[in-house]
Amino acid sequence: MPPPPSPTLLRPSHPFYKDFTRNYAPSQSLAANDHIPFKTVDQHHHDSLIGLLDSNGLSAFWPPDEVLEISRVWHFLEPWPDSSSGIGKLNALGIQTCTLSNGNLELLTDMATYAHLPWTHVFSSEHFGAYKPSPKVYKGAVEKLGLKAEECAMVAAHLGDLIAAKECGLKTIYVEREMEEDLQADEIVTAMQEGWVDIWVGLQDGENGNRGFLEVFKRLQAAKQ
C-alpha cells in the first residue's frame, strides 16, 4: 500500500487544494450554453475530489461514503468575522439580504445555519438552472424579489461577478477579501480607477481595516440619512 497522504495536501498553497477548491470552474460553460445539463456544485465537488484522489494515487485511503462526506466540507465553512452581525444590521435597515451563489440550495442553507447567517432569502443558481455570470441568474433573482434591477445591489468579493451583475442593471458593491479575487493586481487597480463598481470596500477601509459587511452597513446607513 502507498504511504499515507501528506498533510501538506490540505494547505491552501498546495496545488491539490487549489485544484479541489477551484475545479468546478468548467461548469461555468453553463453560463454560455443552456443545452449543457445542469449539475450542482456539490456534484462538481464530489466528482472533482474523486478525480484528484485517483490522479494522486490516493483513492485507496477512503471508502466512497467518506469521500462524499469530505467533498461536502463546504457546507460547514467558517464565515468572515463580520458576516453574521453585518447581515443582521443590514436587515435592521429594512434591506432584504439574499444569497446569490453558484452553490446549490442545500449547500447554502447548511452554510447559513452553521455560520449563523441571517439572510432574509436564500437564492441559488440552482433555482435558475444556470451558473453566474449568466444573466438568467441575476435577472431571475431580481424577479423573485419582486423588484427592479436598479433597486438591487450585488455584493461580492469577485469583480467578474459584479461586472456581470452591472450589465444586468444591478447596483454593485465590492467587498475585497484576502485571496478571493481572481483578477490580476493591475486589473484590480484599473477597476478601482475606472469606477467599475458603485461602492468599493477595500482591505484597509473601515475601522481597524476591512470589516466587510459592517462597513457596507455603515455606508448604506449614512446614505439613507
Keywords:
single chain, 225 residues, mainly alpha, three-stranded parallel sheet, two-stranded parallel sheet, 5 strands, globular, disordered N terminus
Approximately how much beta-strand content do the residues carry? Answer: 5-15%
- State the end-to-end CA separation: 67 Å
Rough shape?
globular
* Rg, Å, rounded: 19 Å
The chain-level mean pLDDT equals: 87
The SSE order reads HHHHEHEHEHEHEH
Question: What's the helix and strand layout?
Answer:
Elements: H1 15-22, H2 41-55, H3 64-71, H4 83-92, E1 98-101, H5 105-115, E2 121-124, H6 135-145, E3 153-156, H7 159-167, E4 171-175, H8 185-193, E5 199-201, H9 213-224
Parallel strand pairs: 1-2, 3-4, 4-5
Helix pairs in contact: 1-2, 2-3, 4-9
Quick structural gist:
The chain has 225 residues and is mostly helical.
Descriptive overview:
The protein is about 40% helix and about 10% strand. Helix 7 links the parallel strand 3 and strand 4 (about 170-175). The protein has helices at about 15-20, 40-55, 65-70, 85-90, 105-115, 135-145, 160-165, 185-195, 215-225, and strands spanning about 100, 120-125, 155, 170-175, 200. With about 220 residues, the chain is mainly alpha-helical. It starts with 14 loop residues before the first helix and ends with a helix. Mean pLDDT is about 85; it is low at about 1-10. It has a three-stranded parallel sheet, with helices on both faces. Strands 1-2 form a two-stranded parallel ribbon. The protein is built from nine helices and five strands. Helix 2 (about 40-55) crosses helix 3 (about 65-70) and helix 4 (about 85-90) packs parallel to helix 9. The longest helix is centred in the first third of the chain and has 15 residues, at about 40-55.
